[in-house]
Amino acid sequence: MKNSFFILLFFVFSPLFPGLYQTESVDGLAAVVGSESVLKSDVMQQTYMIANQQNVDPYSSPEKFESLYFSVLDQMVNNLVLYDIAKKDTNIVVAEASVEEGVGVEMERRISIAGSVSALEDMFGEPLSMIRAKLRLEIKKSMQIEFLTSGFYQTTNPSVGDVKIFYDKEKDSLPLLEKRVSFSVFEYPLLLSVSKEKKAYDFLSSLRDSFLVYEIPFSSLAKNHSDDKGSAANGGSLGYTSRGTLVQSYEEVAFSLNKKEVSLPFKSPFGYHLVLLEERLGEKIKSSHILRALSFDKKDTEETLKNLSSFLGEQGVYKSVNKFDSLCSHYRVNEKSYQGVYREIPLSSLPVFLEKKLSLSSQGFLEPFVESGSFFVVYFSSFHEEVFPSFENNYQNLFNLTRMHLIESKILRVINKHKKKIHFETFY
Fold it and tell me: What is the secondary structure of 23-61 as a DSSP string?
């Protein structure tokens, strides 16, 4: 059975091939779909990323790599066909807040992998504002496609007979069920002390007074006091930016200011900011800021752990796994949580931070640990060795595969029908 990677995301980022963004010399049009186009370099980036995932070496296996390239190109064309349908559908409205959240999460991931903002800019050969603007456009496209195809997911529900037919047809090509683990995760965010946040707010308030009352240049204050070293060297200037380029909390304040007006201190995911609006040019603004970054220290960690231990004790989770599972399923501390109850998850699909904590020789609760600004409590309930898939031991997975097969068939029919209505061309 062929591996399916339908539908590919528009944006790509492969840290294993960092030079690709600057050294890829093969370019030109790979395809045209309606008013959209696909560059050969974009296809190559996707192909390298998937080749790495599938352990296909482009040098020792050029035929496999070429086949993968054409497969990726076909999928990218199909995506653009779906996008052409989606953008013409007036019922499809993507919330800007959802797009911005997606951009924020992906930008944080990219910066984390690259190591720093400057390293990410070097990797892409573009300033952060340009990287973010392009990413925002592609994520919005991707969300429009997801909205369009979501109806197929909601209306496709295979019968037992459908699953049996699929299994009988594909059973000889189904891979072994890899090692799997069942576990529950509870997430509890680290909290900064109120005094620390107040100190940051008060410090920026004093800098605001220095600018307004004592007329100390904002650029001098930024150079001497901003924790954003990248912009501090330029007097805090972020240059001209369009809506959707910066984090939402920053833009909400910056775009609301009048020219030469300075904001009150406000909080973003990066800390507290003071913003000066320098210029406004249509839907673009030129702003400068001073950042007071917030960081957790040992005292914050100890206080949060104390609160977490007290909370878990009150819930009685260590006396009853069922209570812990219920807590993981129903209690929500934020919307970006890994929290939940997971059954027979392949080891290869585990988040990296959980994979590091996993020990196949032990089950039960792990000691609470800190990762990405949160405490995590994890209970490993069972481990499962590799086995040959059967209709009995793999029904849920077979059901999902059957469902995806039916969904993909429906989507491909829609794509092929729409291709007859628009201009599209590929250049192999």
Answer: H----SEEEEETTEEEEHHHHHHHHHHHHHHTT--TTT-
